[in-house]
Amino acid sequence: MPEKKNKLDMEKIVSLCKRRGFIFPSSEIYGGLGSCWDYGQLGVELKRNVRNAWWRAVVQERDDMVGIDASIMMHPQTWVASGHVEGFSDPLVECKNCHLRWRATDLQGDSCPDCAGELTEPRQFNLMFKTFMGPVEDEANVIYLRPETAQGIFVNFDNVLATSRKKLPFGIAQIGKSFRNEITTGNFIFRTREFEQMEIEYFVKPGTDEKWFDYWVKERFDWYLKLGVGEENLRLRQHGKSELAHYAKDCYDVEYLFPMGWSELEGIANRGDFDLVQHARHSGKSLSYFDEESGEHYTPYVIEPSAGVDRSTLAFLIDAYDEDVAEGETRVVLHFHYDLAPIKVAILPLSKNEKLVPLSREIYTELRRHFMTQYDDAQSIGRRYRRQDEIGTPFCVTIDFQSLEDKQVTVRERDSMAQIRLPIKELVKTLQAKLSGEPFDTQPLWATRTSDALGK
Ligand code: GAP
Question: Ligand 1 atom 19: the closest Cα is on which residue?
Answer without folding.
Answer: 308
